[in-house]
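Amino acids appear as letters; backbone shape is given numerically. Here is one record.
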Amino acid sequence: MQNSKQTDLANTNRQDLANKRKAWIGQANALIPLLFIWGAEWMFSAIVDVAIYWRDLDWLKQAAFITAVVASLIQIWSLRKEFRADSAEGARERSASSGGHAGAGSSAGEHSGWGHPALLVLPAAMLIAAVALLEAIGAVSPLFAPVLRAFILAIGFVQVGLLLGKPLVYLGLWLFALSALMGVWYLGYSGVVLEGMGGISLILSGYMLRVWGR
């Protein structure tokens, strides 16, 4: 009898975890456009780094970066508007219900945790700003900046993968190992390789989230 209760409890916990993971993936799906935007920007920057050997195209990298920032701000603004619409709809549903139904409690539980996906942009924006500041004040050599960015991205993949799925953890570990390899033995090529691989990783992670959210 006790074994049966333990089995039922374990099954219930797994089901709860699966429901939470599904809710988190649904929230993270709103960030897919940002992953695609910055993945494309990183890949484009890597291509320009190769072309710079023949022509001065540094201005093109700056234009791509500014374009990615503007596109990201537009996307974040749309998430803000979506958040307001969801909040208003949720308020109407709560006022229409009696407030004591189990379904309402379940819905509230699903939306707890991360909160709105737009909030996930804040830590990433802080990390980007921190790296940019370190580069601007000369605390990080231009040679090491791509390695630092790739390390931060790899750690982010692992952290998010612990909540959403093992493939993201594996992706982060792979990028971390590649960053360490480039930093130790091939530092001169780290800008091209890590920006290119980092961009591919961002796009791949966005594709994973889109598949999981179906």
About this structure: Confidence is low (pLDDT under 50) at residues 100-113. The CA atoms of residues 49 and 192 lie 6 Å apart. The two ends are 39 Å apart (CA to CA).
